[in-house]
Amino acid sequence: MLQRIGVLTSGGDSPGMNACIRAVVRKAVYHGLEVMGIKRGFNGFIEGDMVPLHLGSVADIIHRGGTILHTARSVQFLNPEGRARANENVKRFGIQGLVVIGGDGSFRGASIFNREYGLPVVGVPGTIDNDIPGTDQTIGFDTAVNTAVEAINKIRDTATSHERTFVIEVMGRNFGFIALAAGLAGGAETILIPERPFSYDEICERLMRGYRRGKLHSIIVVAEGAAGGLEVARKIKERTGFDTKVTILGHLQRGGTPTAADRILASCLGAKAVELLMAGETRKMVGIKAGKVVALDIEDALSQTRSIDLDMYSLAGILSI
Ligand code: ATP
């Protein structure tokens, strides 16, 4: 009989992680389970840094960004010795199931730990990057996109007033999900993503075409993995002579109060993770597919490739001519 589970947040933090912790705790307590909150991701798991979480422990956090459990990237958990220490704590604290809220790396760690020590694990996708296969959306993505759109709106005001070209660099090392969504929603003239090669000639030609038509300002959204914002601005300035400014949003995109969509997603996925553990499931991840909460085998999910919607990318190009 399942009596006590653990929950941790791992990898980069994302807005909505707190709403997810709350859902895990409240759903578990509702069903008579005890919950241990493990601090600082897998580091706290290895060090036995954990505290009991009650209904009140998760009061007043649904609207807060970050994670009350703190998060980390744990080098020690990559080593078998680190994971063996974590298993000592599993026994010491009587943990019978683990919810891991984080990105694909965190899921990989959880899956390996399950294979080695048999502890049932369920992964909940929490990352602003939206780069986890097996789910249409990750917790924090919507908030990060809204933060980027808000920034684009503000920059648009000054870009228009000063008749300037602005390059806005957003997060996304391997994928352009944030850039595409924020660029489309913010009406950017050009969107650069790692998935699509681009040429400066093409970008500048587009800018010049707009200029000849009387368009005196332009916004270019670039995912950090496609090119550095500073470099893009320098190249544009060199080739066109346009006054080109850069804004790098950076970690701004990680923080802030989660949107309603992220809180709802976090609540549904957190609760589903507990249900799966109660049903005796193991090595699963939860996700949202076509509006429905789904459960998948972690390893199957991670073996799939996540791809951006290139039709949406083309549409953004058409709408911004
Ligand atoms: P984000 O998407 O925000 O980067 P993430 O979960 O993908 O989040 P990672 O740094 O890749 O972030 O992984 C988080 C932690 O998971 C790592 O620091 C490590 O402790 C653990 N981990 C990742 N891969 C493995 C692995 N192959 N074996 C064991 N542990 C792993």
Automatic annotation (TrEMBL):
<feature type="binding site" description="in other chain">
    <location>
        <position position="224"/>
    </location>
    <ligand>
        <name>substrate</name>
    </ligand>
</feature>
<feature type="binding site" description="in other chain">
    <location>
        <begin position="215"/>
        <end position="217"/>
    </location>
    <ligand>
        <name>ADP</name>
    </ligand>
</feature>
<dbReference type="GO" id="GO:0046872">
    <property type="term" value="F:metal ion binding"/>
</dbReference>
<dbReference type="GO" id="GO:0061621">
    <property type="term" value="P:canonical glycolysis"/>
</dbReference>
<feature type="binding site">
    <location>
        <position position="245"/>
    </location>
    <ligand>
        <name>substrate</name>
    </ligand>
</feature>
<feature type="binding site" description="in other chain">
    <location>
        <begin position="251"/>
        <end position="254"/>
    </location>
    <ligand>
        <name>substrate</name>
    </ligand>
</feature>
<dbReference type="GO" id="GO:0003872">
    <property type="term" value="F:6-phosphofructokinase activity"/>
</dbReference>
<feature type="active site" description="Proton acceptor">
    <location>
        <position position="129"/>
    </location>
</feature>
<dbReference type="InterPro" id="IPR012003">
    <property type="entry name" value="ATP_PFK_prok-type"/>
</dbReference>
<keyword id="KW-0479">Metal-binding</keyword>
<dbReference type="InterPro" id="IPR035966">
    <property type="entry name" value="PKF_sf"/>
</dbReference>
<feature type="binding site">
    <location>
        <begin position="103"/>
        <end position="106"/>
    </location>
    <ligand>
        <name>ATP</name>
    </ligand>
</feature>
<dbReference type="GO" id="GO:0005524">
    <property type="term" value="F:ATP binding"/>
</dbReference>
<comment type="subunit">
    <text>Homotetramer.</text>
</comment>
<comment type="similarity">
    <text>Belongs to the phosphofructokinase type A (PFKA) family. ATP-dependent PFK group I subfamily. Prokaryotic clade 'B1' sub-subfamily.</text>
</comment>
<feature type="domain" description="Phosphofructokinase">
    <location>
        <begin position="4"/>
        <end position="277"/>
    </location>
</feature>
<dbReference type="InterPro" id="IPR022953">
    <property type="entry name" value="ATP_PFK"/>
</dbReference>
<keyword id="KW-0808">Transferase</keyword>
<dbReference type="GO" id="GO:0070095">
    <property type="term" value="F:fructose-6-phosphate binding"/>
</dbReference>
<dbReference type="GO" id="GO:0005945">
    <property type="term" value="C:6-phosphofructokinase complex"/>
</dbReference>
<feature type="binding site" description="in other chain">
    <location>
        <begin position="127"/>
        <end position="129"/>
    </location>
    <ligand>
        <name>substrate</name>
    </ligand>
</feature>
<dbReference type="InterPro" id="IPR015912">
    <property type="entry name" value="Phosphofructokinase_CS"/>
</dbReference>
<feature type="binding site">
    <location>
        <begin position="73"/>
        <end position="74"/>
    </location>
    <ligand>
        <name>ATP</name>
    </ligand>
</feature>
<keyword id="KW-0963">Cytoplasm</keyword>
<dbReference type="InterPro" id="IPR012828">
    <property type="entry name" value="PFKA_ATP_prok"/>
</dbReference>
<keyword id="KW-0547">Nucleotide-binding</keyword>
<dbReference type="InterPro" id="IPR000023">
    <property type="entry name" value="Phosphofructokinase_dom"/>
</dbReference>
<keyword id="KW-0324">Glycolysis</keyword>
<comment type="function">
    <text>Catalyzes the phosphorylation of D-fructose 6-phosphate to fructose 1,6-bisphosphate by ATP, the first committing step of glycolysis.</text>
</comment>
<feature type="binding site" description="in other chain">
    <location>
        <position position="213"/>
    </location>
    <ligand>
        <name>ADP</name>
    </ligand>
</feature>
<dbReference type="GO" id="GO:0006002">
    <property type="term" value="P:fructose 6-phosphate metabolic process"/>
</dbReference>
<feature type="binding site" description="in other chain">
    <location>
        <begin position="187"/>
        <end position="189"/>
    </location>
    <ligand>
        <name>ADP</name>
    </ligand>
</feature>
<dbReference type="Pfam" id="PF00365">
    <property type="entry name" value="PFK"/>
</dbReference>
<feature type="binding site">
    <location>
        <begin position="22"/>
        <end position="26"/>
    </location>
    <ligand>
        <name>ADP</name>
    </ligand>
</feature>
<keyword id="KW-0418">Kinase</keyword>
<protein>
    <recommendedName>
        <fullName>ATP-dependent 6-phosphofructokinase</fullName>
        <ecNumber>2.7.1.11</ecNumber>
    </recommendedName>
</protein>
<comment type="pathway">
    <text>Carbohydrate degradation; glycolysis; D-glyceraldehyde 3-phosphate and glycerone phosphate from D-glucose: step 3/4.</text>
</comment>
<keyword id="KW-0021">Allosteric enzyme</keyword>
<dbReference type="GO" id="GO:0042802">
    <property type="term" value="F:identical protein binding"/>
</dbReference>
<dbReference type="GO" id="GO:0030388">
    <property type="term" value="P:fructose 1,6-bisphosphate metabolic process"/>
</dbReference>
<feature type="binding site">
    <location>
        <position position="104"/>
    </location>
    <ligand>
        <name>Mg(2+)</name>
    </ligand>
</feature>
<keyword id="KW-0067">ATP-binding</keyword>
